[in-house]
Each structure stands twice: as C-alpha cells, then as structure tokens.
Design a protein that fits this description.
134 residues, mainly beta, 5-stranded antiparallel sheet, two-stranded antiparallel ribbon, globular
C-alpha cells in the first residue's frame, strides 16, 4: 500500500509508544476513487450510483494472512458489484473501517487508471493489495 492514512499512523504510533488501546475494525471496506488520494487519506472521490458500493471484507487471518518480511497482502479475491453504468476513470483504491464515511486506513494508486463502464467487473486477485510499513 502506498501510504497509511494519518488516522492509522496515529493509532499505530500511540499503540507502540504509549500502549494506547486500539481495536481494529472487525470488517474492512475496500473502496475506489476517481481522484488521486492524498497521503493523509483525504481527497477521495468515490463513484456514485450505478451499483457502486465498497466491498466488505472480514478482518481476519484468512482474508489477511500473517505478515512476512514486513509485508502483508489480501488472502482472498475482492470483487465489486457489477456496474450498471459508468463509474468514471478509477485511479486509486482505499481501505476504510465503514461502508460509507468512516476512517481511512490507507490508500494507493492502481497500477494504471481504469475506465469503468456498465458490466465491467472490478476485482483484486489474491495478493493484489499489498501492505507494508516502510
């Protein structure tokens, strides 16, 4: 993942350095953006309508297997609902703790922008979403 958002960076730092309690979300939501997401997790413009919705993924060791070498990736495929119309040109993805609004955990650019139209399936294969603390 290109960048953890400020929200998650603060939670990790507070947990590591002052043992402040942090309970990760039981369900994570993968979303798409038609704008470049800022490093702090702002500037998100999600597609609207046409069957767009964030994808819920249970936050567990099956869906996000153990880290190795300082990195972690998704352990299951993630598929969005089939668009019933244009979602525009998607440039970035993000992870949130809510199906709308919520706290952004992190974001990254897609390998290449994708123009999403009616019937185009959007998915991330196992291992496509990479997370690291670097």
């Amino acid at each position: 993942m290109g960048s953890f958002a400020d929200y998650l960076e603060d939670k990790v730092l507070d947990y590591v350095f002052s043992k402040a309690a942090f309970t990760p979300a039981a369900t994570l939501y993968i979303g798409l953006s038609t704008t470049t997401i800022a490093d702090d997790g702002t500037n998100i413009t999600e597609p609207s309508g046409n069957n767009y919705a964030r994808v819920a993924v249970t936050n567990n060791a099956t869906n996000f297997p153990a880290s190795s070498g300082g990195a972690k990736s998704n352990g299951v495929g993630i598929t969005f609902p089939t668009p019933s119309g244009s979602w525009g040109t998607v440039t970035d993805f993000f992870i949130s703790d809510a199906d709308t609004g919520g706290n952004i955990y992190g974001a990254d650019a897609l390998a290449a922008p994708q123009t999403i139209g009616s019937g185009n399936i959007v998915s991330f294969a196992i291992g496509d979403l990479d997370f690291s603390l670097t």
